[in-house]
Specification:
292 residues; alpha/beta; five-stranded mixed sheet; 5 strands
Length: 292
């Protein structure tokens, strides 16, 4: 087996900021974006966590081409950093760094914030480092309070607003799981959807045993009707979800059979002469690519 060469030097290199040249033009408005403010606050509070990625130094000028970290460089310059830690790439071929970024899910972020607070980092310092309000840190830290473990497990890989937890807390564990299952199945994990589910939740499935006090524009009759319709929708959705796989398989088999059948010129001619309507339907099925 041949050895695989590394794409960058193992040891980071300290490079003066003025010796780093950007490889692309920075988009307009970056310096006022929320992402930039968070990066700047983080660097100011705890320093640079991820080194920049640069190319090898030019033999004549000693300058490095910046491969990844353009926003961090702008923040470092604003904060008057003179030098920065960099990873030096050894490959000559073009490479897009961080082309695949795995963002933290909302629950993973919750665990990280809880762990930081347990280790003595104050919510105020976290808020300053992330350039957010202290109340946001508090909501993220208490995200799973009042949420049953089964519902949390269903949401562990999802990105969602922290207000969804506020809505789910008003429901009993069984109803929480039902609502989360429906939101995940529909791929619509939103506060509006959760609140609609809350409105449609029977009183006996609510923690306090009563409907939310504030339901703007809804009469008692409308609430009862919405509850019935949402209940029917849930049942129909789960039924479709259970049979969807079998229906798709049947469609694929039928499509394959009819495609082979219509390839027979004698059959196609007979259908065209005697059963043109049936032939048209068969052709539609052959061209179908989904149950929609």
């Amino acid at each position: 087996m041949t050895k695989v060469s590394l794409g960058f030097d193992l040891e980071p290199l300290i490079v003066p900021i003025d010796k780093i040249l950007p490889s692309r033009k920075t988009p307009m408005g970056v310096a006022t974006s929320k992402k930039f403010m968070q990066i700047r606050s983080s660097i100011q509070e705890i320093g640079l966590i991820e080194p920049l990625s640069v190319g090898q130094a030019d033999p004549k000028t000693g300058q490095h081409i910046l491969l990844d970290g353009h926003i961090r460089v702008i923040a470092l310059r604003e904060l008057s950093f003179g030098e920065v830690q960099c990873l030096v790439a050894t490959d000559d071929e073009s490479y897009t760094y961080n082309s695949r970024i795995n963002r933290l899910s909302t629950i993973q972020e919750h665990y990280m914030i809880r762990r930081a607070i347990q280790r003595g980092v104050t919510p105020e310092r976290l808020a300053k480092a992330l350039s957010v309000d202290t109340r946001t840190i508090t909501r993220k830290a208490t995200l799973l309070e009042g949420i049953c473990p089964e519902a949390g497990e269903l949401l562990k890989d999802r990105h969602f607003a922290t207000d969804i937890s506020r809505v789910l807390r008003k429901m009993k564990p069984t109803r929480q799981v039902e609502c989360v299952e429906l939101m995940v199945s529909a791929n619509t994990v939103t506060v509006a959807y959760a609140e609609a589910m809350l409105v449609a939740t029977p009183t006996e499935m609510l923690v306090e045993g009563k409907k939310p006090a504030k339901l703007t524009g809804l009469t008692q009759e409308q609430m009862a009707k919405m509850e019935r319709e949402m209940s029917n929708l849930q049942g129909q959705y789960k039924m479709v979800e259970q049979t969807y796989g079998q229906d798709v398989l049947n469609l694929v088999l039928a499509k394959g059979y009819l495609a082979r059948l219509l390839e027979n010129k004698s059959v196609a001619r007979y259908l065209k002469q005697r059963q043109p309507d049936v032939l048209a339907e068969f052709e539609v099925i052959v061209q179908t690519v989904s149950l929609d």
